Amino acid sequence: MLDLDVDCSVGWYLWDDEVLWPVIERLITVRVESESLAGVVWHGSSAGGWAAIRNALRSQLPALAIAVAPQNDPRLYKDFAEFAVLAEDRRAAAPFRLSDHIHEHSLRPQCCMFTLTNDRDYRHLRDHIYPLWSATNHSKAVDHRIIRSGQGHGTMNNDVYWREFGTAIRLFDGVLTHRTP
Question: Does 123 map to a domain?
């Protein structure tokens, strides 16, 4: 749906965060409890990967972030100023560097991060993945996979994605049951 919206921007997930996040968390909590689910999986790619990790870090529920080539800091996106017009609105959440947040707060219990990045996505590997990976201090609740695809940013084979999704779920299950996957 967001792709069809002419007003869609890279910063859509920042909009009215103080109002929207409690509603989202409440809706998800009700669903997790009513369905007896083990937790919630947040998913996103690039700037959406940043949002997935941010939401997994701040949720009170057991959470897994599956992020494809996530940004560590959306402000590093070359067109951030043009596309993130909402970031200037006082109701918008301020973007921040995830690695700084993790350094300051560490990963909360029952929170997992699973990232996938193509081997030719050099800028993301250097500017985003390396700082994120370094901040997690080699936690067993974090896994980063470099996909040997010869591709750059923004594409991933569906078969590869779903295979790695299964790996991410096993990681999450191991953290929830206190087993090393």
Answer: yes
